[in-house]
């Protein structure tokens, strides 16, 4: 990462800030705050028992010394540490709609960063491929959030493949205390189970799955040359053959079921975002659904319809 930021990157940061700040101010601020209720309860004071107080909050030691009942009062810890773990591998550059997956990831990350700092939370960034490409420890403040956006626009990945283990292991070292971790990826890597399991044991992990509609179904366009954006491998496929299309579609469906099963088993929430419908409605729906529940993960993810906002 160079220390001198090109002028065009600074212009992109400013444009992105203006666009995402309006969304944060108008649509995300309240839902973001209600989503995360704090990481625990912090002791505030001991006060005299009042009718209606729960018996389990009585401080028996203080009560014994004072000769009358006293209770402990706690306040919710509001301040959070939020980490954005973003997949910048070769497959993130793919997109057949208005934007590539990487562009969607960048804007979504900007929204989450600005929402976090607006609520006085710490926000950090980790970009990864099959290695950690760039990492910034969590800090507070608008300037820090804009620095993360600038870094994300400037990062030039050295790797093209995807591996989750190095990134999630690094997160474990960067985050000594329980944090909220947004892992944003198309989740096409094969090493998800163990690293995600270890991360979810200590942190509140939210998976944001980015996909393009062309990845869901193989169209009938005759003989097509397909290039793997991560390995560079090229293969010719006769898409006019129904058996080929059926096989491809079955593979995609099986991978999706396996991913959702893994997330459900680990208690990881999933937000599904598509390049043709955008992130606004899926993210808002997730915020609202999670805020309504007291415990547990949102494991049932509604697949967005092809029509909708492209924000």
Description:
This protein is α/β, with parallel strands linked by helices and 311 residues long. It folds into two domains: 244 residues, von Willebrand factor, type A domain (Rossmann fold); 36 residues, no CATH class. It has eight helices and ten strands. A hairpin with a 6-residue loop joins strand 8 and strand 9. Helix 1 crosses helix 4, helix 1 runs parallel beside helix 8 and helix 5 runs parallel beside helix 6. The longest helix is centred in the first third of the chain and has 29 residues.
Brief description of this entry?
With 311 residues, the protein is an alpha/beta fold. The chain is built from 8 helices and 10 strands. A hairpin with a 6-residue loop joins strand 8 and strand 9.
Global outline: elongated
Structural class: alpha/beta
- Number of helices, counting only DSSP H or I runs of 4 residues or more: 8
* Beginning-to-end CA distance, first to last residue: 29 Å
CATH superfamily (homologous) name of the largest domain? von Willebrand factor, type A domain
- The helical percent reads 40-55%
**For the report, how would you describe the main beta sheet?**
6 strands, mixed
| Beta-strand content bin | 15-25%
CATH topology of the largest domain: Rossmann fold
Major sheet: order of its strands? 5-4-3-6-7-10
CATH-level-2 architecture of the largest domain: 3-Layer(aba) Sandwich
**What is the radius of gyration?**
23 Å
Give the number of domains. Answer: 2
CATH domain class name of the largest domain? Alpha Beta
**How do the helices and strands follow one another from N- to C-terminus?**
HEHEEHEEHHEHEEEHEH
């Amino acid at each position: 990462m160079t220390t001198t930021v090109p002028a065009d990157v600074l212009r992109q940061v400013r444009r992105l800030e203006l666009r995402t700040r309006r969304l944060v101010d108008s649509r995300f601020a309240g839902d973001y705050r209600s989503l995360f209720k704090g990481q625990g309860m912090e002791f505030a004071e001991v006060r005299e028992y009042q009718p209606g107080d729960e018996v389990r909050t009585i401080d028996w030691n203080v009560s014994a010394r004072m000769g009358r009942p006293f209770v402990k009062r706690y306040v919710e810890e509001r301040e959070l540490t939020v980490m954005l773990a973003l997949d910048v591998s070769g497959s993130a550059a793919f997109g057949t709609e208005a934007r590539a997956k990487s562009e969607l990831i960048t804007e979504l990350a900007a929204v989450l960063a600005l929402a976090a700092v607006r609520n006085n939370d710490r926000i950090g960034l980790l970009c990864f491929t099959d290695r950690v490409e760039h990492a910034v420890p969590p800090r507070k403040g608008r300037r820090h959030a804009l620095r993360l956006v600038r870094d994300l626009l400037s990062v030039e990945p050295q790797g093209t493949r995807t591996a989750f283990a190095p990134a999630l292991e690094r997160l474990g070292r960067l985050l000594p205390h329980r944090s909220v971790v947004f892992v944003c990826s198309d989740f096409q890597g094969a090493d998800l189970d163990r690293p995600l399991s270890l991360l979810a044991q200590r942190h509140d992990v939210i998976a944001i799955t980015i996909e393009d509609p062309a990845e869901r179904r193989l169209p009938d366009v005759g003989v097509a040359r397909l290039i793997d954006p991560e390995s560079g491998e090229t293969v010719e496929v006769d898409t006019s053959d129904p058996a080929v299309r059926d096989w491809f579609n079955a593979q995609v469906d099986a991978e999706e079921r396996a991913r959702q099963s893994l997330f459900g088993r680990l208690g990881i929430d999933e937000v599904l975002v598509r390049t043709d419908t955008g992130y606004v409605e899926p993210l808002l729906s997730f915020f609202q659904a999670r805020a309504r529940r007291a415990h547990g993960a949102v494991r049932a993810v509604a697949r967005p319809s092809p029509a909708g906002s492209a924000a």
